[in-house]
Amino acid sequence: AQDGQYLDIVIVVDQLLTGFDAPQLNTLYVDRTLKDAMLIQAYSRTNRIADNQGKPWGRIVNYRWPA
User: Cα 26 to chain center, whole Å?
Assistant: First the structure.
């Protein structure tokens, strides 16, 4: 998104799980089995701090078991 604009929703199949930074990301919905570094990388997307957003934590909704 450009300065002053925000992404409302992004649907991802495989791209953007690595090398993508969106500090405003609050909730990650996961519907695939992730392991090892890919799991940490994807889940960490919600940990980014967004300036002036008041975002104390991120949320992960996982539709798969095991994660």
Answer: 7
Residue pLDDT tens, the chain, 67 long: 566 666 677 777 776 666 777 777 888 888 888 888 888 888 888 888 776 667 778 888 888 876 5
> How many H helices and E strands in the chain?
1, 2
Long-range contacts of 61-65 (CB under 8 A, 24+ apart): 61/27, 61/28, 61/29, 61/30, 62/30, 63/29, 63/30, 63/31, 64/30, 64/31, 64/32, 64/33
Gap between the Cα atoms of 35 and 12, Å rounded: 17
Q: Look at the pTM and tell me if it is higher than 0.90.
A: no
